[in-house]
Amino acid sequence: MVPEVPLDWERYDAILFDLDGVITPTAALHQRAWTSIFASYGFTDSDYLAYVDGRPRYDGVATFLDSRGVTLPRGRPVDPPGDQTVCAIGNEKNRIFNEMLDSGALSPYPGSLRLLEHLAELDACVGLVTSSRNARRVLEVTGLDDRFDCVVDGLVAEKADLAGKPAPDTYLYAAAQLGVDAAHSVVVEDAVSGVRAGRAGGFGLVIGVDRGENRAALNESGAHIVVDDLDDTID
After folding, report:
1. Pair (195, 93) in one structural domain
2. Annotated catalytic residue 20
3. Tens digit of pLDDT for each residue in 32-76?
4. pTM of whole model > 0.90?
5. Engineered SS bond to 96: which of 33, 67, 102, 128, CB 3.0-4.6 Å?
6. Is 228 a catalytic residue?
């Protein structure tokens, strides 16, 4: 039975959050960077949601290029930013993203911060599961670096050889690190790939966060409930 909002958060062993678009509005920065990189391909908002959003950076490059019938060598993560390999394109995107991050203040979504504060009052177990390799820096910039009991980011996934979203591996890894049962834990995602990961991992509740015009896709991908903002889940 799918619970109604507001939620009784004390029912769950742990709550695992995505970062970009869920906790912080960095998804908008990522989308702008991807749009800049793929401008010559006519990159659209729909392309971002379908091929890039929530995926590890290099997987996003390869998935989008495949949608355009383009194949490049994978290359290596140490490739300099450019356009000759998948990794080079991903590194160029990361360069642009970090320039944007340096250019101004970044704050968490107020509704997400209110939920984190509510969960802290309940002494709930919370984790962060993100494909981003910049997660630690984003958490530091936003003052959230002490909010999570576990952080599984793109760097951790690479070191542990974990498949990225929509595979459930990173979420299941976080649950194992926290010593909790996925079936009694929550995944909170704004991306279709992340929702699919949560459902594939057998998590008891998968919440979709619709930041605009993605509600239908989140529902179709298996979100148990979809909210406009995370403070909708607080009584």
Report:
1. no
2. yes
3. 999 999 999 999 999 999 999 999 999 999 999 999 999 999 999
4. no
5. 33
6. no
Helix (H, G, I), strand (E, B) or coil at 93: helix
Residues 88 and 39 in one domain: yes
For 119, phi and psi rounded to 5 degrees?
Answer: -65, -35
Tokens of 102: 């340096």
Please state the domain count of the chain: 2
Nearest CA to 213 among 231, 192, 232, 196?
192
DSSP letter string over 114-180? HHHHHHHHTT--EEEE-S-SSHHHHHHHHT-TTS-SEEE-HHHHHHTTPPPTTSSHHHHHHHHHHT-
**Residue 162 is part of a domain; what is its CATH number?**
3.40.50.1000
Q: Looking at the structure, do residues 18 and 117 belong to the same domain, yes or no?
A: yes
d(C-alpha 225, C-alpha 235), whole Å: 16
Q: Which residues have CB under 8 Å from 107's CB, separation 6+?
A: 24, 25, 142
- Answer whether residue 3 is part of any domain: no
Task: Based on the fold, state whether residues 117 and 14 are members of the same structural domain.
Answer: yes
Q: Which of 13, 20, 79, 153 is catalytic?
A: 20
